[in-house]
Amino acid sequence: MLNQKYVDMLSKKSVIRELSEYAVARGKEIGYENVFDYTLGNPSVPVPQRFNDSVIRLIGEKSPMDLHGYSQSLGIAEVRQAVADSLNKRFGMNYSMNHIFMASGAAGALAHAFRLVTVPGDEIITFAPFFPEYNPYVTQTGAVLTVVPPNTENFQINFDAFESMISEKTMAVLVNSPNNPSGIVYSTDTIKRLAAILKEKSKQYGHIIYLISDEPYREIVFNNVDAPYIAKYYDATITCYSFSKSLSIPGERIGYVAINPACPDAEQMIVMCGQISRGIGHNCPASIIQLAVAENLDITADLSVYEKNMNILNDELKSLGFEVVKPGGTFYIFPKALEEDAVAFCKKGTKYDFIGVPADSFGCPGYFRLAYCIETEKVERSLEAIRKFVKSEY
């Protein structure tokens, strides 16, 4: 007998994927270069040559077992230490390898973090707008995801709603900064206030409320934007990171869990990650990619194109009458639709080969997301399609 839970999920296909598939099909008709597809957050800038060179050199120098054998269950020791050293140098922390667990991207890191600190029935709180995959990520652990409504004025945390929603069942708070889908970066003041509340509530309820920080866009922060390293402000922080965006290697599925050394039982929690892996079939990211990443912790792909694309779109959307909070990072922009129903708005846009994603599933109805990780030339050509769409429909 089939597991009905997963059968039911088949009828709840991601709207992002549906629109992306439409864009691909439309591209076969008119040429994909003529479809202004802003659906998927797939990095568009080239992988740094230095990373490719590392992979090639490792193949020539390392033994097949080192390259292609299983790593230790927590990740390759020297890789974990290199990650710790890099974080310490950049952010003034004091991690050791015993605070680092290598994971299959940020999704794999989150899968371990949720299981570290919750049992079925416990609550994890997050803030709208949020990445829709948090729903299955959390609910399939048996925990409950509670979503704080958005602060649409600036997309910082809605603290009034949050303080009224946090409860004894809350075991963790999940933040994503820079944020998918809004592009907003939580400020130092926001993080300090959040930390103060979590300290107070942890004391009130007699248990630690962990802060799980999902940071795949950490390196994509624009000029003069306040972007604090969140773990510096709260001891019980579990940082979940991915190299997918910083090095443009999403298909390599590599990231890590880093637990603040000041967190009680931090080292034990990392060892627990190895046991969690046994239950979810995680069992070690690719050894060769771990080794290659360790040699490239101090570089990124050329991420400057994302800020350029953002400024082009931000200026154009505002000139057309859209309400937009200017992103501080990522490769997403999050305007308010020109009608209440963002799904209807986005469907109308497809007539002009302008494909955005309605934000209902992000917990923010009435808004839509554009993933501008495409060539700048295509962003510029899309402006005429957006103008035509707005003029004709609104």
Task: State the gist of this model.
This protein is α/β, with parallel strands linked by helices and 394 residues long. It has 14 helices and twelve strands. It has two domains: 4-47 and 302-393, Aspartate Aminotransferase, domain 1; 49-294, Aspartate Aminotransferase, domain 2, CATH 3.40.640.10.
Total number of helices? 14
* DSSP, total strands: 12
Based on secondary structure, the structural category is alpha/beta
| Order of strands across the main sheet | 2-8-7-6-5-3-4
Keywords for this entry:
three-stranded antiparallel sheet; alpha/beta; Aspartate Aminotransferase, domain 1; seven-stranded mixed sheet; about 400 residues; Aspartate Aminotransferase, domain 2; 2 domains
What does the model show?
This protein is α/β, with parallel strands linked by helices and 394 residues long. The protein has 2 domains: 4-47 and 302-393, Aspartate Aminotransferase, domain 1, CATH 3.90.1150.10; 49-294, Aspartate Aminotransferase, domain 2, CATH 3.40.640. The chain has helices spanning 4-9, 15-30, 49-61, 64-68, 77-91, 105-117, 134-139, 159-165, 188-205, 266-280, 287-294, 304-319, 342-350, 376-393, and strands at residues 36-37, 100-103, 123-127, 144-148, 170-176, 210-214, 237-242, 255-259, 332-333, 354-355, 357-358, 368-371. The strands form 3 sheets. Strands 2-8-7-6-5-3-4 form a 7-stranded mixed β-sheet, with helices on both faces. Strands 9-12-11 form a 3-stranded antiparallel β-sheet. A two-stranded parallel sheet has the order 1-10. Helix 3 crosses helix 11 (287-294), helix 5 runs parallel beside helix 11 and helix 12 runs parallel beside helix 14 (376-393).
